[in-house]
Amino acid sequence: MGGDSRRLTELSRPESLRLLGGVPVGRIVYTVRALPAIVPVCHLVDNGMVVVRTHVGGECAGSVVAYQADAIDMVDRLGWMVTVTGVARRILDPDEVEYYADRLPPLVSADAIETIRIYPEIVTGARLVNEPDS
Amino acid sequence: MGGDSRRLTELSRPESLRLLGGVPVGRIVYTVRALPAIVPVCHLVDNGMVVVRTHVGGECAGSVVAYQADAIDMVDRLGWMVTVTGVARRILDPDEVEYYADRLPPLVSADAIETIRIYPEIVTGARLVNEPDS
Q1: pLDDT tens string A114-125
Q2: Closest A-chain CA to B81
Q3: In this model, does residue A2 exceed pLDDT 50?
Q4: Is ipTM strictly over 0.85?
Q5: A75 touches A131 (CB < 8 A)
Q6: A134: chain B residues, CB-CB within 8 Å
Q7: I need a labelling partner for A28 at 20 to 30 A (CA). Which of A46, A88, B21, B99 fits?
Q8: The pTM is what?
Q9: Residues of chain B contacting A109 with CB distance shorter than 8 Å
Q10: Distance from CA of B69 to the nearest CA of A (A)
Q11: Residue B122 in contact with residue B86, Cβ under 8 Å?
Q12: What is the average pLDDT across A102-115?
């Protein structure tokens, strides 16, 4: 058995977006009145863009946000984490709004669901791997 | 069977901290050069405070951060989410540092692990529950 140590190995941008697209839920991270805010939402990765449908669109749209997902097994403490950073933009085209409404249920039902696209200017991903005992 | 809708019911501060303390991993959310940043870490809830050991302490300490955990079952889309917002402070007392080093392995091994305490000035928690069909 190895020790408890884990290290991070960097993932490529395509692999990071592939992992992100393989899970249904992540967290949108933004700023409200200079305070950090974070809300879990459902997402799709479509043509290399992250799309979410959320009631916090009004607080995010037009700003640089982070979008994060991870899958970490707490028994062996292995897994991965991906963060996308970029500008969040409202999708306004009715056909696109309908397209995503059909494919992406909001995690929480609300009156003011908006469809938001995040342009992934920065993509960072890492995998937790066992570090050989030295 | 009900519809797909989920709504949020607010959780009390004690219940939120109890749920947070019952899971080993969350995410620290902070700001680096005006950009949102988020990193998964292991945590303890001790005397109502959140304690983490992380290599991003230098970027967080002295700032208001958010600390978030959730447990959302993606099959039935039920679960909970908790966010603590408050100032992150380095723990410097050697006895306290050692106490937490014995109880809280860092998620990722690194040379510059710091012990950080987050004072929960704001605690928000919510549970995803089924919304009866109207």
Answers
A1: 999 999 999 999
A2: A40
A3: no
A4: yes
A5: no
A6: none
A7: B21
A8: 0.93
A9: 5-7, 131
A10: 9
A11: yes
A12: 90
* B119 vs A contacts (CB less than 8 Å): none
CA distance B74 to A43: 12
B111 φ/ψ angles, rounded to the nearest 5 degrees: -70, -35
Cβ atoms within 10 Å, residue B96: 14
| Rounded CA separation B110/A128 (Å) | 12
Q: CA angle at residue B62 from A60 to B125, to 5 degrees?
A: 50
Mean pLDDT computed over every residue of chain A = 92
Least CB-CB distance to B72: which of A35, A40, A105?
Answer: A40
User: How many A×B Cβ pairs under 8 Å?
Assistant: 91
Mutate to test the interface with B, among A28, A35, A44, A53 (most CBs of B within 10 A): A35
- Spatial CA neighbour of B40 closest among A79, A12, A85: A79
For B51-92, how does the pLDDT look when each residue is reduced to its tens digit (9 = 90+)? 999 989 889 999 999 999 999 998 888 999 999 999 999 999
By the 10 Å C-beta count (0-12 exposed, 13-18 middle, 19+ buried), A52 is classed as buried
